[in-house]
Amino acid sequence: MAAVELRKLCFRYAGSEKQALTDIDLTIEEGESVLITGPSGCGKSTLVRVLMGLIPHSYPGELEGEAYVFGMNVKNTPVSRIATRCGMVFQNPDNQLFTFSVEDDVAFGPENLALPPDEIGRRVDEALRLVGIEHLRHFSPNNLSGGEQQKAAIASILSMRPSLLIFDEPTSMLDPSSSASLIQRIFELKRSLDETGRSITVVIVEHRIDLLLKHLSRIIVVSEGRVILDGDPLRVLEESFRKRVPINIPPLLQIYFRVKDKCGLKTTPATVKELVSMLGGGASSNG
Amino acid sequence: MVKIDVENLYFRYPEASDYALRNISFRIVEGESVAILGENGAGKTTLAKNLNGLLKPTEGSVKIDGVDTRSLSVARIARKIGFVNHNPEHQFFSEKVEEEVRFGLRNFGFSEEAADKTIREILSVFGLEEYRGKNPFQLSGGEKKRLAIASIMAWRPEALIVDEPTIGMDYAQKLNIRRVLRSIVSEGRCVIVITHDVDFAASICERAIILSRGEVIGDGRLRDLLSDDRLVEKASLRKPFLIELEEETGLNGLEEDFDTISSILMEVFQKCRS
Amino acid sequence: MSFLRAFKYRRKDTPVHRLDPRSKFLLSIVLMVVSIVFTDIRVLLALVAGQLILLTLAKSLREWLSSLRGLLFFFAVIFVTQLLFGGTLYTGIVLSLRLLALSSSMSWFFLSSTPEDIGRAMSVAGLPIELTFSFTMAIRFIPVIYDEFQSIYDTQRSRGLELEKGGFRNRIRNLMPVLIPLLVGTIRRTYEIADAMEVRAFGASPKRTTYRPLRLKSGDYLVFLASIILIILALVLKLVYGVE
């Protein structure tokens, strides 16, 4: 069963004349690591709200077409039911933690599911370990940095044991080193869950393509409410470059795409050094 | 002719046990473009708020054109030194874009006619004239940012402090903001950009002041400072892409325009010409 | 504001912190009532001494002491009004002691109980989860919203806003540039919080469990006992011996 299946999905927010999403056809298989990107206001956040059932249940509007998450029809499944298979981490770290200790926040979801206390305890321990924040267990969110808050938010989703993790611009309020550490953590935890056989699917909405690229299996580019590109990360980025879609293509690739044909480059450079040496140069030989 | 003198500045928030800023001294003069760099919590915003009188030094002094900020009102300083918040929505309260710009002008005693004229001019400079009657909250993220800057630049302050201008912005929006800030620099005004986006800083600023845990650990030409691996590491920053490229290729004077860079690279390296 | 420090929870590991919030709340209420009912200086002194023991056990004497500075102002007010309106130095001292006993009886409770524990005690007492949760969330988000207010106020001051300028009507109008962004921001925040709660299945089951259920321990029974003895003692003093 696919993790996500969207058929001819259209959505218009109540009170808006513009379609936020138009004719989206999309299948995401279990275990994938997918980046959804596109210019600001393109509809990517709207798209992931549908996957979580927040649309149509919390946001009024007109939803047409079909949306299934692990076979559940989003239209008639309550969010709290979808929440047992899908978790979502949002942009603003501060607004996702409601209690006075990280531990209690991580327990919050399982408590709502009315799980027995010892089961909750096991899940809390596991979630804190997966995100690497055992040392923050008793901290109040008010005393955490943005990056730490965001990790606590991830842990508080992991304790629900979701099979699909959705991130909506998780680093947009963080500085570069916290962003890098957060992204690193997300894919490390995916790997360690995959190893134990509890494979999870990651769908992430972001502008920071540079930090994500090496972890992705697929990139989807959304523009004006439509999926305009979808597939292998590098191929999609090159297409976006050719079609001048305004997304944050990493500078190294910006140059690589421009010179690769003329210079006959076969492989993609991972660092500036690699690019320069592929071109047959180096700081010492040219001056 | 603005001049900001910071001398042995120490700052501690009331109730806090530790200093947020320690022993900071520098001078910024008109026409300079300065990036204040450092990771979150390094004290960047606290420093900025000390420069425009929103916060007053606990010890030491900040002088604007020779006058201590302690003896000036925030409004008096703001007339000379504009401050743009990182979140544009923290300033919008009007129903119309033009009223948002008028707010500052009215506070600073512009006549209605002068204000009308200024609003027209500034909205056109910032590419916002078509939104004149629109609700600021309905603009896109990039437009909101530009409106926030425009509503400050309207009264023509001699210096502008911009807090985290690129946060949450996509590529196209960043380019737009860069263009706007560069044009302010080219008018000979002083621009102080607080950011952790080193590539963005490098594309606008000549000078950098690097903060780490409340102290200045570097002050000088941005290119020199950010080429220093140890300093970059210590401040938890990253080397800007262009500086890295220049170091690897031995080229210099590269500008962030990938078409030009690519053709220069293809010209320089033998392999591509054959 | 320094006097509010005596009410701000600090995480510590002490016998008082470990007590169940319900038993602490009961004792706190009893102490409060006793300090209101009596004016006899001996009773008040005994009360303050007892609370000092509690505060010492809770390792919170320092916070309590630093709050005294804030109370000084109120003591001054008490003395001045006493002397102006026919009281004596003695009545001034008694009233000040009473205020001290009253504020301390709440202080040790708040210093040693998380807002969450208080919320939990409220829900055990039969209040609906939505209500108790709103209570703890309000406390959780007050500093966050205060920071936002500060940022907005700073931004508007940097645009030349001067709140203190002009007459009353002008001042009210001047508040708009601060209040509107704050309101918009808070409403947006509320929606975001609601979304974040939804995705964690808030309201999924009417039989919500708690990870750390409140459990009464032997210490709590001791506190219950102490509270009851205190009530009886107070009644005896008042009714039998006629202590003021």
Please, could you describe this protein's structure?
The complex is a heterotrimer of chains A (287), B (274) and C (244). Helix content of chain A is 38%, strand content 21%. Chain A contains 11 helices and 10 strands. Residues 283-287 of chain A have low confidence and may be disordered. By secondary structure, chain B is α/β, with parallel strands linked by helices. Chain B folds into 2 domains: 3-237, Rossmann fold (3-Layer(aba) Sandwich), CATH 3.40.50.300; 240-274, no CATH class. Helices cover 40% and strands 22% of the residues of chain B. In chain B, helix 3 packs parallel to helix 5 (141-153) and helix 5 (141-153) packs parallel to helix 6 (171-186). Chain B is globular, with a radius of gyration of 20 Å. The relative contact order of chain B is 0.15. In chain C, helix 2 runs antiparallel to helix 5, helix 3 (41-57) runs parallel beside helix 5 and helix 6 packs antiparallel against helix 7 (129-157). Chain C is mainly alpha-helical. Chain C has helices spanning 15-18, 21-37, 41-57, 61-84, 89-112, 115-124, 129-157, 168-198, 218-240. The relative contact order of chain C is 0.14. Helices cover 73% and strands 0% of the residues of chain C. Chains in contact: A-B, A-C, B-C. The interface between A and C is large, with 47 and 33 residues.
